[in-house]
Design a protein that fits this description.
The protein is built from 8 helices and 6 strands; from the N terminus they run ααββαββαααββαα. It has helices at about 1-5, 5-15, 40-45, 70-80, 80-85, 90-95, 120-130, 130-150; strands at about 30, 35, 55-60, 65, 105-110, 115-120. A hairpin with a 2-residue loop joins strand 5 and strand 6 (about 115-120).
Length: about 150
Amino acid sequence: MRKYAQLIPVLFALFLTACATVPSTPVLTLDGAAIGGYDVVAYHTDDKAVKGSDQFSSIYNESVWHFASAENKAKFDADPVKYAPQYGGYCAYGLAQGRIIDSDPEAFSVIDGKLYLNYNQSVQNIWLKDTSTYIPNADLGWEKAKAKAAEKK
């Protein structure tokens, strides 16, 4: 089993090469809501992934955001930049590699008050080993992807 674990980064790299490098939307939308309807405030306040409800919704950055409570919705509405995931919710490690790929809302980390999502738990483990290198690379990858998306409009 251990020797197969070494294949994960290689397989992920191959997967990345097959992925688009321009986001189709500014925010990853799954099941009709930003990041699959997960409450982005809960990542910061509860340190866990919590499904939101369409009863508590907001519109931000061309997307519908769901929250688990009116209190979390109010916090988001007051400062959406503080709570919204980096890179539109796309995989942070993928952006560090120059690719736009979807993420799993359950594979998250909050670093220096910012929410980062990853493709899955295995990729998240790679991400967490060197965020000081990956974050600046992902920032650059996201800026390039947004510039390419703007060119296509």
